[in-house]
Every structure is written in structure tokens, then in C-alpha cells.
Amino acid sequence: MDATPTLTRRDFVAGTLFSAATLALAGCSQAPADQPSSDQGASGQNTSGQGAPGGQASTAGDGTVLVAYFSGSGNTARVAENIADDLGCTTFQVLPTEPYTTEDLTWTDPDSRVNHEHDNESARDIPLEQVTPDNWDSYDTVFVGYPIWWGIAAWPIDGFVAGNDFSGKTVYPFCTSTSSPVGDSAAQLAQLAGTGDWKEGMRFSGGASEQDVRTWVDGLGL
Hints:
single chain; alpha/beta; eight-stranded mixed β-sheet; 6 helices
């Protein structure tokens, strides 16, 4: 991946996670921004209509733009779909092999999966149904979307970023959050990727409108 060695998530988020853990102990931890609702039913099965393994869905367009995203509740998925609708491009949903259920994402439960993963970095290497989208080499522009969990990018997106070569691609990160800013999450993902021209990230609220998304996309001049 270019001349820059790919860094592990352990390399670049250790300091951030330490800070987040410190805040959590102080009673100031930030909740995951995407709460479970529409993406995954109680069974944990994907119900978003993407269908194909890896969650790839094609739309009209020239095939050079991809919107890849992980979504816990549907907030990030909705923004991703709005981007794809505006540009007429392909979407790729990053799907964990073991889907997150509503109970898994209950951050107020100290015994939930998401809390266990937050507290144990080794548990955040999330296997994915498909890491590399079909026709990956044909895309020269990639949007990468994720919710903010505890001040960083939700870790299921890490496997997608680390597992693909972004050489020659322009990357536009975007995230959803109840209150947290995009912060260093986009820069950390860029460091994890090690390649690609990563642009400044954009944060959307959970209730972002279609017009909010279109305004941002139109301003990119694609």
C-alpha cells in the first residue's frame, strides 16, 4: 500500500482509547451515536434490503464512485443512501459476520457486546462478511461512513479500511453522532489505511436531512 506501512489499530488508537476510558471512569463517556433500530432486527439479521453478501448494491452511475459504510441503527445507512442517490453511485454495506443485535448495542448495559469490545481492544477485530467490494479497483472516489462510538470511529469499519488498498483513490469520510464531532476519527482511519488521498471528515447528526447531505455532497464538486 504505497510506501507507507499499514498501521494496526492498536498503533493509532491506543492513546485515544486510553483517554476515552479515562472519561468513562469519570462518568463522561460518550454513548455510541447509532442506536439499534432499523438495520438489524432482534434476531441480529440484516434487514436493510442490501441482500448480497458483503452488502453491495449497484445503482446508476459511471461506476467510479463508491459509498462504503457501517451502520448500527440506520442513521449512517440513511446518510450513505442519500449520498448514493445524489451521485447515482454504488453502495457497499460493511457487515460483521456476527451481526450486532439490539442487545449487543445497548451501551447502557455494562455486560453488552459493545461495552465488552470497548473495554477490551483485542475484541474489536471484527470479522466481516466481505472486506473488499466487488470491482474495487474501478473506484477512484470512495466515501467511508461510520457512527462515532466513544469518540472514535465504530470499530467494525476498521477491518474494511485496513483490508483494502486505497492507492490512487480520493476518500471522503463521514460519520453520524448524537453530539460528538468527527474529531480525529477520519485522520485515524487515514493512518490505518496508509494510502489514499483522505479528505477532511464530515459529521452529520442522527437526524440529518436529505438536504443537509446534498448540500455537503454538492459542495465537493464531484
